[in-house]
């Protein structure tokens, strides 16, 4: 053996990731099915060309212009406004959350969430040697707030990860949840951060405000967002957070130098200038989602209420057979979530038609 084995706790593990298959209808990774227009692509290309002329230099380590643009974008969600020093960005919100655990987790500390939830959370904990504790969601995938508060007070985590809407169930947190859990996480020494992961925030049904509004009230609150979903820019790899400036400063200690390339920064800034266009299909996708929920229920299936751009449905004695049957018909969805359930991302009207057609056929063959 001329090199050491992989770390003990990683031995035998598979890398995270959905199958990347070249099929006509891809409804498996919660992407926005609508790409940018030619005008938007041209603007991004021009911005990247400009950046290319200075590629001999390292990029702006503090990504100041991008943080200002993201702060302006987030300020639409709160009467209090968001300042650039409250914002931090990285290569996807996955990297943002890993950086949070690098800075605030670690050996002897605990991170927690409530299952079923996003399966990357335990991986951030594992990779930062943070103890992972998982509570449970209720039968309908909502969070039992009293039980969650008690679990936080008992486990005293340094970081609580709370997606809203939750992946893979689509469940949004009720407005009172964030304040309640921020207070619970501030009730012990030295306290915990509450990270509200709003990767799918823009798809929420009306009435539930963004947790961004609560930033001035709770210093231990962090809200993460991404350009990967509603913003239709998954390929860009740009996620960000809003929090107290001291939290951003702490992350600056652990981030790799120049982690956001000049190309990424330029492309993200250009994409943000086209926010109205890139977000323009969100209403349509919400309507398509609600139609999908209704249709699946009409087929006699159990469907979780969804505030996201995906729907969790079931239950199947052999969910893999259903997944495979759909794939055989050119429709790729995701085999994820509790036993017996499947998740479909919301695509274009045509893609959803193809999904429904394929489901109808598969349900006739698979019990
Ligand atoms: N949070 C949740 C709940 C997600 O589902 C995802 C993507 N699947 C992410 C964060 C990470 O997205 P990205 O790194 O593309 O920003």
Order of helices and strands: EHHEHEHEHEHEEEHHHHEEHEEH
The level 1 CATH classification of the largest domain is: Alpha Beta
Bound molecules: 4'-deoxy-4'-aminopyridoxal-5'-phosphate
CATH topology title of the largest domain? Aspartate Aminotransferase, domain 2
Domain tally: 2
What is the rounded Rg? Answer: 21 Å
Q: Helical amount among residues, as a percent range?
A: 25-40%
Figure out the total of helices.
12
C-alpha geometry: globular
Number of distinct beta strands: 12
Strand-residue proportion: 5-15%
- Identify the CATH architecture of the largest domain: 3-Layer(aba) Sandwich
**Termini separation (Å)?**
50 Å
Poorly predicted runs of 5 or more residues: none
Described by strand count, sense and barrel closure, the largest sheet is:
7 strands, mixed
Mean of all residue-level pLDDT scores: 96
Structural class: alpha/beta
CATH homology group of the largest domain: Type I PLP-dependent aspartate aminotransferase-like (Major domain)
In spatial order, strands of the major sheet run 2-8-7-6-5-3-4
How does the SSE layout of this entry go?
Layout: E1 25-26, H1 38-52, H2 64-74, E2 87-90, H3 93-104, E3 110-115, H4 121-127, E4 131-136, H5 145-155, E5 159-163, H6 175-185, E6 193-197, E7 221-226, E8 239-242, H7 245-254, H8 262-273, H9 275-278, H10 282-298, E9 302-303, E10 310-314, H11 319-328, E11 331-332, E12 342-345, H12 349-365
Parallel strand pairs: 1-11, 3-4, 3-5, 5-6, 6-7
Antiparallel strand pairs: 2-8, 7-8, 9-10, 10-12
Helix pairs in contact: 1-8, 2-8, 3-4, 3-7, 5-6
The structure holds 4'-deoxy-4'-aminopyridoxal-5'-phosphate.
